[in-house]
């Protein structure tokens, strides 16, 4: 899939501003996801929720993704580190998908039932409110700068929004109606989305900047 890149990049001074902005956003992402991971994994372990544990592990992977971006922009030549950082992000997605799929199928076959988790429901709702804005700001900066890794990391943050919604629905159905199957199904949805995002990151199928005037847009890449 072609990547739309503006014909002329930002000036050096603007590039410095964007790089600094991305570093700050990465730091915020790491901080939030550390808290998110601890809460989700502890709540999931306490209630036997595969979806919550998977969500927590996704937060761990988001930290590794953000760290990869931080490592890239810590160098004098971020573009030279881009491919390696993208590989780290992609492999993180694949690892998450494999683990969550295994645990979900084991829960379904074994008939395991997850308990109610107030902490999990609150966490999913808070993440659903915070993550879209964080992803949007980083994606804009990454596209303007022309950084695939910054865009990939912003997409992983956006993925957290979708996963928060899936998790919230799964936990709510289980808590309100006792539908124990909703938890592993929610976890499988997390795995499927993770595979797609991992594949896109591996191939670099991410848009780095708005397309030039008159250029064709693909998959919404030239718009925010």
From TrEMBL:
The chain crosses the membrane at residues 24-45, 51-72, 84-102, 114-137, 158-179. It comes from the Bacteria. It is a multi-pass membrane protein. GO terms for cellular component: cytoplasmic vesicle; membrane. InterPro entries: Cation_efflux_TM, Cation_efflux_TMD_sf, Tmem163. Gene3D superfamilies: Cation efflux protein transmembrane domain. Keywords: Cytoplasmic vesicle, Endosome, Membrane, Synapse, Transmembrane, Transmembrane helix, Zinc. It is found in: Cytoplasmic vesicle, Secretory vesicle, Synaptic vesicle membrane; Early endosome membrane. Residues 30-199 form the Cation efflux protein transmembrane domain. GO terms for molecular function: monoatomic cation transmembrane transporter activity. Belongs to the TMEM163 family. This is Cation efflux protein transmembrane domain-containing protein. It comes from Paractinoplanes toevensis.
